[in-house]
Each structure stands twice: as C-alpha cells, then as structure tokens.
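Closing statement on the zinc ion sub-project.
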Amino acid sequence: MGTNSSTAVLVNISTEKWPPRLRTYFGSLNVRSPEPGEPYAITVVSGCDGLMDIGDKRTMPYRITAQEIAEDIAREINGDSGEGSFHGVFVAAGTAPTEAELAEARRRLEEFQRRLVTAADLEWERTKNPMFITDLDRRAARQLGLEKPWLYDPKPLAECPVCAEKIKHGVAVCRSCHAILDREKAAQYGLFPKEGKAATDSQRHRDKQEREVAKNDSQK
Ligand SMILES: [Zn+2]
C-alpha cells in the first residue's frame, strides 16, 4: 500500500479520547481509541477532492490522498505537547499495523510519558504546587504505573463555622478552636466534652487507675 492507495490506516494505541478532527475538505473525522483490552484501534481514512482557489472566482479541484490526510491528522494529534510529543497515533504502512510498528509506537509513547513525569517531578520539587501539574502529566504517571505525591488533587479545605479557620472536610473537632463540629463522630472516638474539656483515652485510663488505688486503699 503506497501513497496512491485510496485508503490509509490510522492506528491509535492510546486509550485517550480525541475530539473529532475538522477539515474543510472532508468535514469531521473521529479517530478511534482502543476499548479496554484492545491493544490498538484502527481508523480507515479515505482520500478526497479539495478545491483550490485560483482567483477570478475560479476554483480547481485537486486530489488529497488518504496518506496525506492520515499523516496530517497523526501529526496534529501527536504534536502539541512539547519536545518529543507523541500521543500514540501513527499511520500504518499496510492495512493493519505490524508488530514492529506497534512496538515502536509503544516505545515512543513511553519515552514521552517518562519525560512528562520527570518534568512534573522537578516542578513538584520546586513548587509543591499541584496547580503546576497537568492532566497530561498525571495520565502519564498512571499509565506508567508510577505512584507520585502530585498524582492527587487535594480536596479543597472547608471552613470552621466557629473560628473560620481552614479545616479538612468531615473532621469531628476543629484543630484550631476545638469546637465540636460533629457530635456523633466526636462521641464515637471518646472526644465528647466532659466538664468543658475533652475526655481522652489516657485521661479515662488515669481515672480508672485512681479508682483502683482508692479501692485498694479502702481494702487495707
Ligand atoms: Zn474552629
């Protein structure tokens, strides 16, 4: 299959979903992504006729080959994420990708993903700010099976209704003003206030020891 074939085969090894590709000469084309368990997905592209404006309100039809269209789309999808940018889309030489083509695509994708993760690591080292980590970085780390401190977007904090201090969601007691924010949970963990202060486990343990000492004394 060469550049004169009427169709070309776009191969995608990434599970990422792409928005449809738009071109004036054919409208919209959806590049398929592999379903779970599928190693790759194929999108067959056909050639089409474009109209060239040659002035004087005249146009001239010209042929755009399937190969040209497929290469253009692969370039567009792969090429907008910086150095070595590759998102797993390529044009197969034949009607189906060969093992060698797939292996090469996997190698390029992994290399690009490792580069993203390295850059994200440096960014995290410098700023500790999850805002500077992109979705692309997070996806790369997940696909490589890497556990990173910057993988998770921390939940935004809540505000204590008593002292307006930033606190975590669902806490029983405000860390700043010690107000009980969830009575049920506080009671469950033995933090219910007794005579104005929280009874901790160690306190109750002490109380029990004192009672036992008193009991032993009375037995003498
Ligand atoms: Zn508070």
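Residues 3 and 131 are 45 Å apart (CA to CA). With this model delivered, the sub-project is considered complete and its resources will be redirected to Aim 3.
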